[in-house]
Amino acid sequence: MGIEEVKAKFAIESPAQVIDILGLMGDSSDNIPGCPGVGEKTAQKLVAEFGSIENLLDHTDRLKGALKTKVEANRKQIEFSKFLATIKTDVPIALEMDKLVREEADEDSLRRIFEELEFRTLINRVLKKNGAGSGILSSAGRNEYAGRNIGTDSNRKNGFAEGNIFSETGNSEFAQQGNNLSGRGGNESQQQGSNFFARGNSEFAQQESNLSARGGNESAQEGNNLSLKGKNDPTKGRSDRLAKGSGGSAKGKDGELSLSLFPEEEEAVQGDLFANFAGNGAGVPKKTSLSTLKTINTDYQLVDTEEKRKRIIQKLLTSKILSLDTETTGTEPMEAELVGMSFSIAENEAFYVPVPPDRKEAAKIVAQFRPVFENEDSLKIGQNIKYDMIVLQNYGAELKGRLFDTMIAHYVLQPELRHGMDYLAEIYLHYKTISIEELIGPKGKHQRSMRDLDPQDVYLYACEDADVTLKLKNVLEKELKANDAETLFYDIEMPLVPVLVHIERNGVLLDTEALKQSSAHFTAEMQRIEQEIYEMAGESFNIASPKQVGEVLFDKLQIVEKAKKTKTGQYVTSEEVLESLRHKHPVVEKILEHRGLKKLLGTYIDALPQLINPRTGRVHTSFNQTVTATGRLSSSNPNLQNIPIRDENGKEIRKAFIPDEGCLFFSADYSQIELRIMAHLSKDKEMIDAFLSNHDIHAATAAKIYKTDLKEVDADMRRKAKTANFGIIYGISVFGLADRLGIERKEAKTLIDGYFETYPEVKAYMDESIQVAREQGYVETIFHRKRFLPDINSRNAIVRGYAERNAINAPIQGSAADIIKVAMTRIYNRFLAEGFRPK
C-alpha cells in the first residue's frame, strides 16, 4: 500500500494524519483506546476539519452537543492514544539499506526449526506455499513404511479422554476454577500437623512413608518404563496410534497444545512455549532435527513361529525389566481383540509376536508368555499399561510385579501438557515415530484395522512402540527423581493401576427394566413441563431451540432490560445465563428443569443400556489417571461421575445400578476431606478444634460468623456458612457468593469478612499460597503433586485472578485426590488380605 492508497483508505490529506485518526477512533488490536463514542467516520470528519488532534483540542468550542462533551471529557485519553499510535522515527539505528533487500529463505534450515518447535501450521503455510513440501514428513519419507498397518492402536497411546482437563466432578461450581496444588513453602505442608484426617487417627496426617513398599531401590535403579497408551477418545488422541486403554492420554499426536498469550504482558512466565518447567524435556540436549527409524540402528524382530517364541521367552525371562505393548482391534479394552504383543528389554531391540484371529488359538500363544508376564522380579513398563493389563487378562494372562507407566510418569511431572507417546518421543528422545495413518490410512470409513494387515507390515511399528516406551522410561525416571515426584508416582499412582484394572474389568450390572420405567416416567414429566412452559409463555415454541427460547424470554416476556447476545445477534440462553435469571420469571426455572430431564434421558437413562458389553452383560467405564489437572480420577465411556447424587432424578438413575446376586455395594467416603485439608495446611486452630470436637463444621462456622450459640444455628444460617466454607477456599468473590445464596452483596461481604475473622489462618494461608506461586511458579500438594502457574504474574487481571484461585485451591483438591487414591489402594489390598472377592 502506497501513499495514495493510505490517503484514500483513511480519507486524509497526508499519511502523517493516520496517527490522528487512530488517536480518535482507537485500535483495539494495539490497545489504543481512542475517544469513547468516536468511530472511523467521525474521526475522519474531525481530522478533515481540524487537521490534527492538537488543533482539535485547542478549538473544542467549535464542537457541539454530545461530541463536544465526549472530546472534552476524554482530552487526556485522546492525547495518550495519539502517543500510542505514533511510531518513533528518531531512534538512532545504523542501517545498511543493501542488507534489507529480501532474500529467499533457507528452507532446509527453516524446516528443521519448524519441526523442532512443532510449528506444523507454518510448515504448510510457508514452505508448502513455496513448493517446498507438504508437511513435516518429506515426500521421500512418506511411503517408507507404506503397507504397514497399525490398527486401532494409536489414540489409546496418546490418550486424551472426554471432557475438559479442568472439568471435574463434585463441587463442580468451584472445581472448575482450575484447582492448583500449593504447598506453604518449606516443609510445613509435609509435617504431621493435627491428626484429624481420620478423627484422631494420624495415619493419613503423616507423610505416608508407608504408603506402599517400593521394593528397595530397585525400582529407581532398574528403571521403570513409562509408556503412554491412553485409550480414550480417538479423535483427541494421537492421530497415528489409536488410543489404547482408559488412561486418558495416549501415545501419539494428541491435540495441539493450546496457549493463551496476552501480547501486553512482558513477564518471563508468559513465555510458556519455551519455559523450562519440570518434566518438559528442557534439560535434554536439543537436536536440530528429529531421528526416525530410518536414521538409527535397530534390531526389530518378527516372532511368528513356535521355535522363535520359545527362544524369545527364554530371553525375556532373564531380564529384570520388560517393556511391553499390545496391538489390538479397538480402543475399548473390554471389546478389543488382541492382534499381537511387542516386547523390549534393551534400547533399540524389540520383538513382535502376532496372534491369530481365533480367540482360543490366540489365548494359547498368550499362555506361553504367562511366565514372562507373571515374573514378579521384573519391572513391567508400558504406555497406559492399564489398557494392556485389561486386554491380557481377557486372554488369561496377568501382569505381576512392579509397574512403570510412562504416560502417568509424565502426567505427574507435567499434568497440563500432552502425554502421548509421539509427543514425548519428540520432546525427550528427539525422535519421530511411525504414523499409524501410514499403515492403516487416514481416519474415516475407509480406514483399515490392525487385523487387516499382514504381521510383516506391522512388526516395525509394534516393535517401535515397546522400544520407545523403554527409552522414555529411562529418561522419565530420572526426571521423577530430580523433581521430588518419586513418592507420588511409585507409592500413590502406580499401586492404583491394578485397582482400576480390577474395577474396570468387573464393570457394573444394570437393571434395564428399571431404566425403561424411568425413561417412560421422565418422558411423561418432560411433556407435562412443556405444557406448563407454553402456558407461562402464552405460546407454543421449540424448547430445544436456543433462538426461539431467547425470543420468548427477551422479546416477548422481556424478563430483563438488556439481554446478552452473541456476535451474530442471537440471544444467549446457555445454562449459566438462565441460572442467573432463574428468579426473574418462573418460566426460566421450568426451562432449566426441562433441559435437565432431557440431558438425563439422553446421557444416561436411554444411553446406558446401549453401552452394555454383549460378552459380559455389564457396563464398563474407564477411570482415567492422566486427565485432570488436580490429580482426581475422571470417568469416561460412559462418564458415571456426573450422575446427580442428591436430587430425586439422580436417585432414579442410580437405583438402576445393582450388585451381583449375593453381593453388596461397598461405599466409602471421607467426611469434609477438603475442609480438613484446609485446616491441616493453614493450621487454623479454630477450624482444627471444630473437627477434633466432632462438631458439624458448617454449623460451627455459622455459630462463629453470626456470633451465636451452636444450638441457635438454624438451617438458613448453616446453608450460608456451608456455601462460604466451600466457596471461599475456591476463591469465590462477594458477587459470586451473593449470587449463589441469593442475598445482597453487602450481606455476602459481611459473611466473607466474618469467615476470615473466624478463621484468620485460612486467610493467611491463601495469601501465602499466592505469594509462593509468584515466587516459584508452581504450587504443590502434601505429596508434592505440582501445578505450574505460568499466568500467576500476568498483567491481565482476569488471567492473574484465575491463576491465584488455582494457587489457593490446588493444594486442597490435589491433596484430597492423593489421599483418596491411597485409600482406594489400601481398601482393595485389605479386601484381598481378608479373603474377600471385590467386584
From TrEMBL:
Primary enzyme class: transferase
Record's keyword terms, sorted: DNA damage, DNA repair, DNA replication, DNA-binding, DNA-directed DNA polymerase, Nucleotidyltransferase, Transferase
Stretches assigned to the 3'-5' exonuclease domain: 300-481
Limits of the DNA-directed DNA polymerase family A palm domain: 650-839
Biased composition (Basic and acidic residues): 230-243
Residues covered by region (Disordered): 138-195, 208-256
TM regions (residue ranges): none
EC numbers on record: 2.7.7.7
Gene3D superfamilies in the record: 5' to 3' exonuclease, C-terminal subdomain, Ribonuclease H-like superfamily/Ribonuclease H, Taq DNA Polymerase, Chain T, domain 4
Reactions it catalyzes: DNA(n) + a 2'-deoxyribonucleoside 5'-triphosphate = DNA(n+1) + diphosphate
Biased amino acid composition, Polar residues: 166-195, 208-227
Pfam family, one: DNA_pol_A
Domain named 5'-3' exonuclease: residues: 1-103
Molecular function, one GO term: 3'-5' exonuclease activity
Superkingdom field: Bacteria
Entries under InterPro entries matching the protein: 3'-5'_exonuclease_dom, 5-3_exonuclease, 5-3_exonuclease_C_sf, DNA-dir_DNA_pol_A_CS, DNA-dir_DNA_pol_A_palm_dom, DNA/RNA_pol_sf, DNA_polI_H3TH, DNA_polymerase_A
GO BP terms in the entry: DNA-templated DNA replication; double-strand break repair
Family as reported in the entry's similarity comment: Belongs to the DNA polymerase type-A family.
PANTHER family: DNA POLYMERASE I (PTHR10133), DNA POLYMERASE NU (PTHR10133:SF27)
Protein's UniProt name: DNA polymerase I
Annotated source species: Bacteroides pyogenes JCM 6292
